[in-house]
Design goal:
Shape: globular
Distance between the termini: 36 Å
Largest sheet: 6 strands, parallel
Order of helices and strands: HEHEHHHHHEHEEEHEEEHEHEEEH
């Protein structure tokens, strides 16, 4: 058997190669929304296994919106001072000093990792697949699968976790940051509400600087960075490698038979991780079904149209409509 990382890399290469052919003709499927939801419900019910591939659209559907009112509620001061318009772009902003940069990241991490999701999209998904042989591969870094109760042994979070720091220059280990995040939120003036969640205090007075002693460090006192895949310093620690091996074993065990490849909210940033391999695996297995639920981006290759379900709509509302 191939090394798990080698097998994972090979699946990415196959997906990219297949996409060059499969993208030649694409389809948005056919049928009413109700008919498509009924087909998806049947695909879940009749499957022997379900491989879930989740992107940012699933978290957006759960209420983790990075712009608009939610951004202004928690980052109004950063918007006013620096002109930042959303949480995503703020993560790349060249802040003037480390104290400001880590004040930003404490808020970013808390409201997208440790705060409760506004809508139970992940919990609804678990309800639909709980009794199935399932596995999840996701590019999301917000820990929502774990919070919803998915089995951690069936998760592969390929791009990292907001809840982890790593040595700034790379290495082989990561560090949990929850206790630091809570201290950093308090230091900025956030207060806890009746549910124990941090919120903006009355009057909206917040600090945009952390005390120097709160700048995060490794246990050895070295600089840290977020454990998010952005360059070749990303740390694939022991947990990452174990999850990669579990994903490889799942693919090998279900390369044939009735498997549903359920793609949820995967956009165009990293299609080679989920979308393209799902297409290729569906093409290779005549018993497989591919399903894509995505607001504005639901389509499939024409070559697998007869074994695909494409639903253009809000993921949470779609999951609620499925009677499986």
């Amino acid at each position: 058997m191939k090394d798990s990382y080698e097998a994972y890399s090979e699946s990415l290469r196959k997906g990219i190669a297949a996409a060059r052919v499969l993208l030649d003709r694409v389809s948005e499927g056919s049928g009413t929304v109700e008919e498509r939801e009924a087909r998806l419900a049947e695909a879940i019910k009749s499957s022997e296994a379900v491989l879930i591939g989740a992107g940012a659209g699933l978290s957006t559907s759960a209420g983790f919106v990075y712009s608009g009112e939610r951004f202004r509620r928690y980052f109004f001061d950063f918007e006013k001072r620096f002109g930042i318009r959303d949480m995503y772009s703020g993560g790349f902003f060249p802040f003037p000093d480390e104290q400001t940069r880590w004040a930003w990241w404490a808020r970013h991490i808390y409201f997208n990792r440790f705060a409760a999701a506004p809508k139970p999209a992940y919990e609804r998904l678990l309800d639909l697949v709980r009794e199935k042989e399932y596995f999840v591969i996701t590019t999301n870094v917000d820990h929502q699968f774990q919070r919803a109760g998915f089995d951690e042994e069936r998760l592969f979070c390929t791009q990292g976790d907001y809840g982890l720091f790593q040595p700034a220059g790379g290495g082989d280990c990561t560090f949990e940051n929850e206790s630091w995040v809570m201290r950093a939120m308090e230091a900025q003036g956030f207060v806890k509400d009746e549910n124990g969640e941090f919120t903006v205090p009355p009057g909206g007075r917040l600090a945009m600087l952390l005390p120097k002693e709160l700048i995060p460090r490794t246990p050895e006192g070295l600089a840290v960075s977020m454990n998010l895949r952005s360059d070749d310093t990303f740390v694939e620690d022991g947990n990452w490698r174990r999850a990669c091996a579990a994903y490889t074993r799942f693919l090998e065990a279900h390369s044939a038979g009735r498997i549903l490849y359920l793609e949820l909210g995967v956009g165009g940033n990293t299609p080679m991780i989920i979308k393209f391999p799902f297409w290729q695996m569906t093409l290779d297995n005549p018993e497989a079904v591919y399903a894509c639920v995505n607001y504005g981006e639901a389509f499939c290759p024409a070559r697998i149209e007869d074994r695909s379900v494409c639903i253009n709509g809000d993921i949470y509302e779609t999951l609620l409509g499925i009677k499986a």
